[in-house]
Amino acid sequence: MTNWANTEARSARVISIACGVSGVGKTTVAANLSLSLSKLRRRTMLVDCDPGPIDATRSMGFSPRESINDVIDGRLTIDQIVVDGPDALFVVPAGPVDRAGRVDLAARRKLADAFRPHRRSLDYVVVDTPGSADPDTLDMVASSDLPVVILSGQGDGFMDAYGTVKLLALEHGVREIAIIGNRLGDEIASREMFRRFRDVTARFLTDTRLSYLGGIMEDERVRTAARRRRCVVDQYPSAISARGFADLARTIDSMDIGAVPGGDCFFGMEAVAHAY
Asked: What whole-number percentage of the chain has pLDDT above 90?
């Protein structure tokens, strides 16, 4: 068995955006964060693993015939399906809306082989994971260099985020998880909600460390841009939410994100070597 982790270095860092349910803004965060990183002149690829009528690919105005399913099924390569997004962002489209958004181990092995040639040509790979807490999705999140969970200020966002963090910690052994607040009143409210969330988590998950990356404020411009099938950072760059995404991208870009074992689940090294 080839030990890819020892023989092939990579520059790309894999960031997985997760939540336990749909509707908390995960896809919006993934798309706008990817584009904001690209605006910093970082070589960024958005991998859309959450098919749906308003998935990340369609939210940018694209309706490609080819998708990541063509790569998983062996019909096409990554280079044949990738879409050139705004600001030199690369977008790997999700599959048809009637196909379950599930990337199991066999599919990840195929994706690993397909992504391997890009391990040094990218700075960031942002993965919009399926909006569910099934084991395959959480295993994919756990394998990333930077697992991110969305803490929404809407509905049951607090408990949904806690459930996702709990599963990542107890069932997948994740010890460090980043949190992004979304759809909150202001930065003070976002930090306060994170503080309460961290305190609750610390009571029951003593070995898990949470870090706050930033918050995205409630902003009607986000929905207006979405109706036009655009990202708010592209359509309304001066909007409060767009500035929040820009700050978030700068924060992530300033971090020293290590290439953890498993982070190459899309590049054909550690995770795939470990799987065999």
From this structure: 55
pTM metric for this prediction: 0.90
Domain-located, residue 73: yes
The answer to whether residue 43 sits within a structural domain is yes
For residue 13, name the pLDDT band (cuts at 50, 70, 90).
Answer: very high
Task: Write the pLDDT tens digit of every residue in 128-168.
Answer: 998 878 888 898 899 899 999 999 877 788 999 999 999 99
Please, where are the H alpha helices in the chain?
4-7, 26-39, 56-59, 68-72, 78-81, 105-115, 135-142, 157-172, 187-204, 220-227, 232-235, 240-254, 270-275
Angstrom distance (rounded) from CA 157 to CA 162? 8
Which range of residues forms the domain containing residue 100?
A: 13-254
Phi and psi of 269, rounded to 5°? -125, -105
Q: Give me the CATH number covering residue 59.
A: 3.40.50.300
